[in-house]
Amino acid sequence: MDFKDYYKILGVEATADEKAIKAAYRKLARKYHPDVSKERDAEEKFKEANEAYEVLGDAQKRAEYDEIRKYGGQHGRPFQAPPGWESRGGGGGFEGGDFSDFFSSIFGARGGNPFGGRGQQRSAGRRGQDVELELAIFLEETLSKESKQISFQVPQTNGAGQRTGFTTKTLNVKIPAGVTDGERIRLKGQGAPGSGGGANGDLFLTIRMAPHPLFDVEGHDLIVTVPLAPWEAALGTKVEVPTLEGKINLTIRPDSQSGQRLRVKGMGLVNKQGERGNLYAQLKVVMPTTSNEAARELWTKLSEKAAFNPRAQWSK
């Protein structure tokens, strides 16, 4: 039988870590999934990628494969069993055609280590695959006490642990207080189902904060830009400022400066301790885009009366 180089199939180095292996598998699975791919050999490529990840995505299988890899496929020779090899009886519980003869010859139903029983007997049950999912949430949802409904795909397996397809799973998830962009949340047992009595895998949610049209985020503080006309900044005014929970009235004092920040305490995001950050209203003086002759005359009088040089510090 031919030796299968699972690292080559996934397109990764033999030193690749778990994250790189998983990423490579997902890329190939998306490319060759029979439901979406139009390539002629898509189904075969998809099965090869599944088989490679079945081995390299499991620490124990990968260790056995790395050891047996020393004997396989060198200089174009066919695969030969290493010294001390115990036959697995043609694959045992893995019969069904989804995995190659090479796979079945190494990872048959009896388990254990292929080199004369140096490892422990493998349990009949197999833990289900973990599922990774990015979850986009709005800033307003971090303050909500309502659950958020999510749907995602989980791989299905038969009693022998062979992948048979995917199914959609729906959950109601409570967004934890104080969650931040990029945070990873584990939902135990919500991944793919186990086989042969094995435990379910876990669901890992990576939080992604959806960009907000009005607010920037700094830690648990929020920044909102407040546009002001020049005369509003000079004379002072009251403006309505948006928050995540409605609008508030904010007093702008006379002679306010563009770029100045006004703090509104306790109107930001919630932290891990359940406390609220602050909202900062950042002032921005905005000039009119057009002006008529009367307005320009007033600007001229203002420039004469104010006697103000904004670049005075340059001469110091």
TrEMBL record:
InterPro entries: DNA-bd_curved-DNA (IPR023859), DnaJ_C (IPR002939), DnaJ_domain (IPR001623), DnaJ_domain_CS (IPR018253), HSP40/DnaJ_pept-bd (IPR008971), J_dom_sf (IPR036869). The keyword Cytoplasm applies. Keywords: Chaperone, Cytoplasm, DNA-binding. One of its GO terms (molecular function) is DNA binding. It is found in: Cytoplasm, Nucleoid. SMART domains: DnaJ. Pfam families: DnaJ, DnaJ_C. The keyword Repeat does not apply. Residues 5-69 form the J domain. Its main location: cytoplasm. PANTHER family: DNAJ HOMOLOG 1, MITOCHONDRIAL-RELATED. DNA-binding protein that preferentially recognizes a curved DNA sequence. It is probably a functional analog of DnaJ; displays overlapping activities with DnaJ, but functions under different conditions, probably acting as a molecular chaperone in an adaptive response to environmental stresses other than heat shock. Lacks autonomous chaperone activity; binds native substrates and targets them for recognition by DnaK. Its activity is inhibited by the binding of CbpM. This is Curved DNA-binding protein.
